[in-house]
Design goal:
Length: 417
Amino acid sequence: MTMTDDALDADARAILTGNDKGGYTIPTEGLYPFQWNWDSAFAAWGFSTFDADRAWTELDTLFSAQWDTGMVPHIIFHKEDDGYFPGPDVWGTGTTPASSGISQPPVTAILARLIHERTGDTERLRALYPHMLAFHRWWRDWRCVNGVACVTHPWESGRDNCPDWDPGMANVDTSGVGDYQRRDTGHVDASMRPGKEDYDRYLAIVYYGREHGWDQAKILHEGPFLMADPAIQFILIRANRDLAAIAELLGEDPSEPRAMADEIEAALPEIWNEELQAYCARDMKTGEFAKAISSGAALGLLAGVENAAMEQKLGAMWDRVTYGIPSNDPAADSFDPRRYWRGPTWPVVNALIAVGLSSAGRTTEEARLRRETAELIRNGGFFEYFDPIDGTACGGDRFTWTAAIWLAWASPNAGEA
Ligand code: 9WN
């Protein structure tokens, strides 16, 4: 029996509270037993629809793991759990709380602003402001090359094994990786997850960071992997603009976040792929572009970047599937509708795109995206991601960020994004 939207709302709230481990939520039981960076920001947005205090606490807990450098790690290992690999001993960052040594898409300022609009809790926002500013400065200082936002590991992009990273991954030396035991394929079907070769490379990059004491200068200038990420480029443009708006609201000086947004926007020509007519991931070591347009380009809509040629491409990519926006172009050789980030649709990425569409007043496209996302969830449940062609639910079940974006955006009861 299909659930009513009201019943789905109640179930989504139950997922958030069920995945709450005391001040932070895990993405899903089993597969991801720790706090993940951008998952938590979305969880907070979901909580803001029924528990404002808990929403802010989620962000506070996330930023409590911020490094002195301003970096907010991609995983925070609050409690031990051997159900996930690689765990804290493999990362070897030596921080308290234990954490990974890379970051994840900086969506916190975007979502904190939306949470504040919903809850009006200015003092909680004020407390977070310096932390978010430090986080953005860290991106500027340690991940931007002349304004081009880069990732030093595919995991840092949050879109792990998207074909965007294939050029950089091809050059990662895996000869010293040795044996290890994966845990992810014990929780979900291996055909949906990255392959062994990908995992070897993920680990080789982690080992490099650990061997160099997570020295960011070394990792940026000499590390095994450095690729421009169009999604993070666009997220940083929007996040810095939102941070500037937050600064104004708080009576702080908005000029620094504004300047960061402008610098990153001015660098967009560096990631323009003439052949594909799209903004594209690019290997900063070789200059090579990724071979297909991905959902990274679609996040241009979040940043309000207008480009007619790219919009035409994105429109075609969307029209080729039943449920947009696919993480990879369905016309590309690398398209795989159920394999992690190589084709499936992620509701959470749709929610970010919708935030941009709403800001731009593009209500028809926003409504289409919301309708398609809601259908996926109504038919398949609160899964991690979905096959964009037939809607098959994939990955982890009772997934925090899918429940969160249902409550905050996709549910007909959600109100405006
Ligand atoms: C590695 C938790 C995370 C998300 C990422 C998603 C996936 C991890 C993995 O799960 O990444 O960080 O093991 O595959 O790709 O976006 O934050 O949900």
